[in-house]
Amino acid sequence: MSIVKSGQVYNIIDRVMGIMSSELLEHGQIVSYIFYKMLQTDGTYSKQELADYAILGLLHDIGTMKTGYRKSLSAIETSETWGHSIYGYLFLKYLSPVDDKAEIVLYHHLGYNKFKYIRSKYLKETDYLALADKMDVFMRVADKAGMGQDYFHRQINIDFSEEALKMFHKAQSKYNITERLATGDYKHELEVLFKKVEFSDKEIKEFLQMIVYSIDFRSQQTVLHALGTTTYAEIVGTLAGLRGKKIEEIYYGALLHDIGKIAIPLEILESPRRLTDQEMRVMKAHVLITERILENTIDNNIFRIASRHHEKMDGSGYPRGINGEELTLSEQVVAVADILSALRGKRSYKDEMPKEKIIDIISSDAANGKLNADLVKIVVNRYDDIMTFYDNRMSVTQSTYMEILKQYDDIYDKFRKFE
Hints:
Elements: H1 6-20, H2 22-42, H3 47-58, H4 64-67, H5 73-78, H6 81-95, H7 103-106, H8 123-141, H9 151-154, H10 162-175, H11 177-183, H12 185-196, H13 201-216, H14 220-239, H15 245-255, H16 266-269, H17 277-294, H18 300-307, H19 329-344, H20 355-367, H21 373-381, H22 383-415
């Protein structure tokens, strides 16, 4: 059983989306809840399927992480629908355990009257999600979205089917959806759903990887750094003799260590030059934001690994300035891996550093008491093996990234006929 639980995955997604945009988070939660209750009322879905669809509802606008989440909900839902629908679909298809259902997100802005032009085994679910999406937009920003008070009467069998609208009314009658939305009880109901359903270890890893990818696809350099740190940490930890649960903790801690960068402006993440002192202060805040996302949400060892990756053995690190006596070996492994990833990775203002330069820098840090000297010795002695392992794994990551970009362009071209 995974040391990360299904309910914790939901809470992490919840907090990440809340930092991105409180409006987008609330929209995702409400759409997820309406969608879930319609499917539950339908009566043909298992608990696991209901949880999968509820996650899809929560993440149906995840593509806005790539296309511009700081815009208003009315703009996202009316003027820029295809971009975020396509990216959301690609994230879910390639990077999540609900990949087979991802096309529901792809088509959730396609009018019901155009369903005859597409082939999908999830047309009913797509129709339900589209209706749930429209319900929340109508309740909050109907005027801004230009919907009008008679929208649902006018758009039957155009934006959604008559059957979907009937299912909503049936669910409303059975579960009193609008009252639960008004009181906020729906949030607790969603939390209970995800606590009761157990995703597998593989599914949990894929959900968290998807969140890291979707955040960091704002910046290719950042996602490669996050995944590079994870890869280096796993192999260095293993070479240092750590096994089993310790490696699992290292994996999750390294994977999530930069999740706080969701709140850092893109112009700082992608700066074409070295950061100014003020910009560096903003960048350093990502650690505290990572703490805010993970605190009381995930296993404490994972939380500490993620939040201490910039601490140093001599106490000169940040944000707490703690020293090596307070740092576990796992935390020290990720600190070394983070620096290794930063040095070897390309940046807009620098190329990949050569082996000799990287070894010189980390050896100097070890000699000056900043990094664990034994771990640095492992890296120096096994440098070529570590880099071969890294290059083999990251070639898959980079090919996935390029495939997403390619498919985005291809799909967008096909969708132009629906504009």
